[in-house]
Design goal:
Distance between the termini: 40 Å
Shape: globular
Number of helices: 3
Helix content: 25-40%
Largest sheet: 7 strands, antiparallel
Oligomer: single chain
Number of strands: 7
Length: 137
Amino acid sequence: MNKLTVETTVNSPIKKVWECWTMPEHITQWAFATNDWEAPSAENDVRVGGKFKTSMSAKDKSAAFDFKGVYTAVEEFSNIEYDMEDGRHVSITFTETPTGVKIIEIFDPESENPEDAQIAGWQAFLNNFKKHTEQSK
């Protein structure tokens, strides 16, 4: 199966980007794809073998799920890798550039949805992350 990729460049310092990506109080502000969803809670133990869980739900309470996994690699300000509950692997790199921090996420696709829909969904999360990070103090 082909791996899928999404990316963005966040116009913020690497320390702020890392904090917004890893701290639960920030994760709950951006970890959803559309404005009719929210992330009411997040837990994050950012270390190899550490676990994370972000609860996501539709604001109208019609649907909800937990996004969970275990970290397999963590290099502060540089790289995070994890395995999701279903065994799919995700690799995220953070690279400082003259225009900000470039984030590239490479992930194993699932088999239920078309690849272009999966890319659109993951890109929407990344776009929310960029917006939150650039606007947060």
